[in-house]
Amino acid sequence: MNNLTLPDWAKETNCAITVCDADCKIIYMNDKSREVNAKFGNPVGHNLMDYHGERARGIIRELLASGGANCYTISKNGGKKMIYQSAWRENGRVAGLVEISMEIPDDMPHYVRG
Question: What pLDDT, on a 0 to 100 scale, did the predictor assign at position 5?
Fold first, then answer.
């Protein structure tokens, strides 16, 4: 696999971005992801599975196998977040997963566009 290079926009954006390779090795965390996961030290280079329970590990395995995506919201520490997890590909093959976690307001507007 080539070294992962992300443009500077990812480093300091206000959502947590975590990327792992197909072997579940964490290969990238932006500043917000490092802040949110500070209790784990520096997980880059470690196995993503080590930081998740069995239910989540099953979802991770399924996303890697199917190349799919998983999206949900959570409430945590008095705030609400949207979590988007998706396979990323290199030359058409699943090369790992990316997770984007962002804080969202309780009363977030929803628009229907046609």
Answer: 66
Alpha-carbon distance 19 to 11, whole Å?
A: 12
The upper half-sphere exposure of residue 29, i.e. CA atoms within 13 Å in the direction of its Cβ, equals 18
**Distance between CA atoms of 80 and 91, rounded to whole angstroms?**
35
Distance CA 86, CA 97 (A): 6
The tally of CA atoms less than 13 A away on the side-chain side of residue 21 is: 11
Q: What H or E segment, with its residue span, contains residue 46?
A: none
Q: What is the pTM of this model?
A: 0.88
Q: Is the pLDDT of residue 13 over 80?
A: yes
Strand extents, DSSP E, the chain: 16-21, 26-29, 69-76, 79-90, 93-104
Residue 74: what residue type?
A: I
The Cα–Cα gap between 29 and 51 comes to: 14
Task: State how far the Cα of 30 lies from the Cα of 33, in Å rounded to an integer.
Answer: 5
Q: Which helix (H) or strand (E) holds 49?
A: none
